[in-house]
User: Fold Alpha/beta hydrolase from Brevibacterium ammoniilyticum.
Amino acid sequence: MSEKPSIVLVHGFWGGAAHWADVIVELDKRGYTDLHAVENPLTSLADDAERTRKMVAQIDGPVVLVGHSYGGAVITEMGDQPNVLGLVYIAAFAPDAGESPGGITQEMLPEAAPNLEPDSDGYLWVKQDKFHESFCQDLPDEQALVMAVTQKAPLGSTFEDMVTEPAWKAKPTWYQVSTQDRMIAPDNERRMAERMQPQKTIELDASHASLASQPKAVADLIDEASAAVTA
Assistant:
């Protein structure tokens, strides 16, 4: 195999597919011609895994899955598909069987935990006036404002949804730690990465939104994983 694989990008809580915008542009520059960014409903891990699974099922040929934040739980849950060759985690949850994002979060509370608030319908939001300092403190004010206003809140119950059979036990993995992450504690990211025994772990001096603040470095890791699985 020598051709570049398809890339499927999976967003996390409080974001959507457009959070991958700069990574998409960077990968396109590098010759990736089959790029996909799933738009998950964030209503349950089962719903989001199924939505992503359906996208992968439409692709002929090898796929590398890339998950940011909660998107890491999604690719962990559904990444066992036969055409998925590798998993890349970007400041992401990588639960083991029987673990949930919420449970992992409680083990090491992140700095911005107090800045989350539920609404009357059970959706959990990052307080809009706290979004910049919580999610993306290394982005310009205007970009952070747009992210805050357009944030996609998950159902709070999704935090407690548990992974069944983690795909990272069967697929090669890569992991990017954000050392200034205020949404997932950096030491929690390091712990999840270490137990997966990834092919490579990198640390970026970045917020939770490393995919937006350091898209070239994120694309470098995706590029390296893609080259490895298609060598």
